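Course exercise 7: structure representation. Students receive a sequence record and must write out the corresponding structure in token form. The form below is the worked example handed out in class, using Membrane protein (211 residues). Read each field label carefully; the graders check that inputs and outputs are placed in the correct fields and that the protein name is recorded exactly as given.

STUDENT ID: A-19
EXERCISE PROTEIN: Membrane protein
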Amino acid sequence: MKKNNLILLRDMIVIGIAVVSLSIFMTVNFTGLYHFFVVRDHLGRLVGLSNHELMINYCHLISYLQCGWIHHWQTSLLSSSKGLTHFANVKQLIEFNNVVLMIFGILAGIVIRNRIRKHQMWQLILPVKMGLTLLGTFVFILVIAFNRIFILFHEVLFRNRDWIFNPQTDPIIKALPESFFEACFLLVFLIWILAGLGLIWYGKHELKKAR
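STUDENT ANSWER:
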């Protein structure tokens, strides 16, 4: 019994890391979310660009962050050395996440395949439900205290203060409202929730078939 619990814990950790990494990858690359804020809030005029020009700059930024072979952000906006250093740090984190996704995505695929083959997906139902309950609590806290959590997030991930942008030297910060980052966090959590609900659904489906 103890061995089975350790195996279940191992599988939950593998699947959990894969889901977290996948949600980050999907959110970073979902430019449609930023486009919504650009159009709704007319963000382009805050930096002296049209909304279309701002989206081009943003897409170039995402390409720079995601692609290891791109070493410079092609932007028409003024950028300071500190600002560029921060984006370079973000790039390192995102590239690390991509490596984690490749490794744990494969491992999670193997875990899920083996559990489906052995009809053991139902064992994930309870731990996933517990995880979603904790996640719901955190989402509530995030919504009511996002600013503090966002600052803490940066203080944990970055060893310098380059993430504190000066709008005069790095005007891009004026086109990246806090509401956009909050939406990004919520999208990450939404993907976690959908993945969890999918696992629960399959587990319950498996139990029904076994009856």
